[in-house]
User: What shape does this take?
Amino acid sequence: MAKKVGVVGVGRMGANMARRLKDSGLEVTAVYDSRARAARNLAKELGCEACSTLPQVTALAEVIITVVTDDAAMDAVFSTKSKSLLTGAMGKLFINCATISPKTHVEVEKRAAKVGALTLEGCMASSITQARDGTLYLMLAGSEAAYKKALPILRKLSKSRRYIGPSGEAAKVKALVNMVMNINTAALAEGLGLGAALGLDLDMLRTVFSQTGANSRVLETDGEDMQKRDHECYFSSAHAAKDSGIALQLARQQKIKLPLATATKKQYDLMVDLGLGELDKSGVAELTFPGRGKNRR
Amino acid sequence: MAKKVGVVGVGRMGANMARRLKDSGLEVTAVYDSRARAARNLAKELGCEACSTLPQVTALAEVIITVVTDDAAMDAVFSTKSKSLLTGAMGKLFINCATISPKTHVEVEKRAAKVGALTLEGCMASSITQARDGTLYLMLAGSEAAYKKALPILRKLSKSRRYIGPSGEAAKVKALVNMVMNINTAALAEGLGLGAALGLDLDMLRTVFSQTGANSRVLETDGEDMQKRDHECYFSSAHAAKDSGIALQLARQQKIKLPLATATKKQYDLMVDLGLGELDKSGVAELTFPGRGKNRR
Assistant: This one.
């Protein structure tokens, strides 16, 4: 079993996955982030190398977990045109956990194969707490060889794993999960926002929602936060905008019209435009509650 | 305890509530419907009077349950300008269960008070099966006197009751419940529809949804139906359009913009325009699955 692990992209999720892996007895040998300070701080905490180049991560680890921002960042860290994670990557395994478009996962798998490396999609449907506790829900896709090799590490990170199929397939499912989650979140913000405007007791309203056809997972995770304006970031509104965008791109390719996903993307884009992109996704309630966000009156 | 009950509006919900009340030992003395045949058939089944006029219902019953279509129908059955349920209504109690706008409930309560009758809002957040089994979820509003008098009958109809406040308040909560439910339903149709277009295994996709932030009550009640195109009507798309409309009217009055509720109303209006209004609300999937409804290709 591979024991030396590197982590590229040590934001809220990546950093906590690194902590968890160290706690569970693996050697976290290298961390990297485009924001050098974030990598340095985490390296100090974990007693490992804060790499200043990507090939250094590849050299120091057997398995490299990537949790980068978006397709562009993914393309860059797996560049074939300059030094990247692929430099000297023969025999290495990359577990790619960012929410990006399916086609980028497929492309990265191809590029890795050319240098003799394996890749696995490890799409996460959980948040920071689960990353820290090793109780993530992982949707996995890629070759059987990659999955087999990754399994011991995946077990440390997750309590629930679902192998979806070949490369790109987990990213499709993930895009759909987040698309529906984002719509349900924006829907809840509309229901509670209008309830507030009507002067209803929101504790009562949330209870009634929970007992009826209005119930949803996001009611449990975000309802009270919306009411109390507690938008500490677990999953940012900017990420919600990006992920709904991935799903809408897939829909355009399939010539399927999705008016609700479109309206939801617009709400999260508006959050970003208003400088609220780093609020948690529950912050979309700032757009629908009277006297908040742009509706201030 | 009042034992003689009349039911006005014996569609899917009203008819089953009447059956349930009879089964639980009350005397269902009178039924009425603008579609006379529906009333006759049910009267034959229950061995009661199929009234041809509204005052006849009021004369034959102590408590009258109304489950009519919309605000216009409610206004008509409680008309002050012609013979209506209010004719000879002194001392009677009306339990009004239709999903209509809050202001109509308030208006009807006023009209009833003038002739010495009580009204209670009994907004239902359940469906046909629960109506038949007496396990409805009821949101109640009105005077304490009306609530107290209604309670023995409400107990026969529901397993869960929530007193919300004065007249109009339960209808507000109900409008919000259905608004959020309708959005979540249309959201699910988008997620599963795009999943189908992408060639994903929809059993798998529904399972993943259920284990993640995409989970919702409507996933449980409507997910499989969407996949299998089983749109037998429990709650019609036409009713979904109407109820989202009630919520949007409240939002306009409060000057709150609700883009998702608006997009959802448009989807259900489109269902009606396409002649699909009598499909269950799950039928909104006809608009988002490739090769179905208007997306036929």
Notes: The mean pLDDT of chain A is 96. The radius of gyration of chain A is 20 Å. Chain A has two domains: 4-166, 172-295.
